[in-house]
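Hello again,

I reread your note about wanting to compare the complex against the isolated chains. To keep things tidy I'm splitting this into two emails, and this first one only covers the full assembly. Below are the input lines as submitted, including protein chains and any nucleic acid or small-molecule components. They are followed by the predicted structure of everything together. The single-chain runs will come separately.
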Amino acid sequence: MNKSELNIKTEEVLKSLEGIKEVNPGDYLFNKIMTEMNYFEIPKKERKFIFGYAAIIAVIIIVNIFSLLNLSKTKLNDSENILFEKSQEVQNFSKVYFSNEDTYNYR
Amino acid sequence: MHSEDNISETDLIKKLQKGDEKSFREFYDLHKVKIYNIALGFLVNEKDAEDVTQEVFVQIFKSIKYFEGKAKLTTWIYRIAVTKSLDFIKSKKAKKRFAFIKDIFVNSDNESDKEENKFIEFEHPGIKEENRELSIILFKEINKLPEKQRIAFVLNKVDFMSYKEVSKIMGISESSAESLIFRAKANLKKRLEKFYENERRFLI
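Full-complex prediction:
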């Protein structure tokens, strides 16, 4: 490519902007902006309250989850204890009933 | 006619400052095309330009109450559009750098997963189809220009603003704006010559 060809090519590139048309943004853009605006329009104080309420609700939910988990754990322990007591009872009964000497005289 | 325009502009500003939602729509309809096209001229990507247009309008609506009328309203809003566009380019460059580093450390075989591929460049729907390829080369070189030259060149050659408008938006004299555009064009010529020289060498 000689100097004049290079010049022509460069000019062609610079001319590529000629006839450029204005473009319209999408119709949905205004609604997007208004949604964004509504967020900003909530006063800072109100926004603080919203975050405060959200934090309180989150804490309540977490406490509830923990207490539910603890409750199910203690319930499990109770049922285990009942089973253990029952088995002890059966064992004692069987000891008395089957293993002890028969003191009754059949004669 | 000019004074009528001024009166309606003042009225509109007053209504906007009072937070009248109807006048937000009116203001948006009046300026959406120009703001969108300024952003498009700098970013050359429809989605990015829409994001910047949104940011510009939110910024305008938020700070219109502080507008004192020292500059013309259009000058003020176009200045916001230019600043937001340049900020967007800077943050995008920073993200790109981070993505490049991430790609080095996080091995991904899938090409579509690579962060770098998420940046789609140079899509200006207003450019004629036959000029598309050449304009891609040009925009790549425009982006490498010094900031002031780039702003002046884009506003004048892509958004077709006069030297006077460019000078007001940039806060410089008309002759400085003219000189910036002249230097930008000369720089672009040099860069393009270098580009084609390199291309020729590569082909040989």
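For quick reference: Chain A touches chain B through 27 residues (CB under 8 Å).

B.
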